[in-house]
Amino acid sequence: MECTIKWMDGMTFIAETGTGHLVTMDGAPEAGGRNLAPRPMELMLAGAGGCTAYDVVLILKRGRHDIRGCQVRLEAERAETDPKVFTRIRFIYTVTGRNLKRETVERAIHLSAEKYCSASIMLARTAEITHECEIVDVE
């Protein structure tokens, strides 16, 4: 896996992933940025959310469960002093589908958290991570 980061101007950077996708990052105005794009740490949090959402959907689909939607909201706290690592992250899942059993969804979340989601497993080395889920049944 590769990624190249190129400084543009001010505190704006462009990341080009190994698969050729571009992601813009910017800093806060008080740090010389113009607030035109997400901060790098926001992207790290988004990456963890995307990683676990991907796992949960894949696990439920492979189990032939009728999943129709998955949303993960993350709430994070960071250390007060440098390095300002994440110290606490709360993953809040909303999984929508037909006849989804709570224990099945919770098992998928657990498998992601403990085995498959490299991003959240890595972040768990500095952060206390909790998981919550809401299941929405649709007709």
From TrEMBL:
This is OsmC family protein. It comes from Thauera sinica. Pfam families: OsmC. Transmembrane segments: none annotated. It comes from the Bacteria. InterPro entries: KH_dom-like_a/b, OsmC/Ohr_fam, OsmC/Ohrsf.
